[in-house]
Amino acid sequence: MVKAGRLIPSVVAEVVRQAPLCPEKVDFAWRSAVGSVMQRATTVRLGDDGILHVTANDAHWALEVKRSSKLILARLETILGPGTVKRLRV
User: Fold this and answer.
1) What domains can you pick out in the chain, each with its CATH number?
2) What is the pLDDT of residues 32-53, one digit of tens each?
3) Which DSSP category does 21 fall into?
4) How far apart are CA 43 and CA 58, in angstroms?
5) Which of 9, 28, 37, 83 is the most buried (most CB within 10 A)?
6) How confident is the model over 45-74, as a mean pLDDT?
7) Considering only CA atoms, which of 78, 82, 21 is closest in space to residue 47?
8) pTM to 2 decimals?
9) Sheet containing 51-56: which strands, arranged edge to edge?
10) Cα separation of 46 and 53, whole Å?
11) Residue 52 burial class via C-beta count within 10 angstroms: exposed 0-12, middle 13-18, buried 19 and up
12) What pLDDT is recorded for position 87?
């Protein structure tokens, strides 16, 4: 038996991956990857080159994004699919 806590995130990620790429989808993926607190302290824009441009409200949040960039990229890949976000630029 598969627990709902493990099944639901993978189902949501699969549904999101199949939706067309748009700013709202990127915002949803960002919030899912970093949590609501970091999401409120940042704004993101995905360039055509696969670079996710992250603007932080202050230096503290910029540092936190940089420190967590590998984990964030892995989570974004799970949600958006491989190769959608190639790197973060803070």
Assistant:
1) 4-89 (3.30.300)
2) 999 999 999 999 999 999 999 9
3) P
4) 12
5) 28
6) 97
7) 21
8) 0.86
9) 42-46, 51-56, 87-89
10) 6
11) buried
12) 96
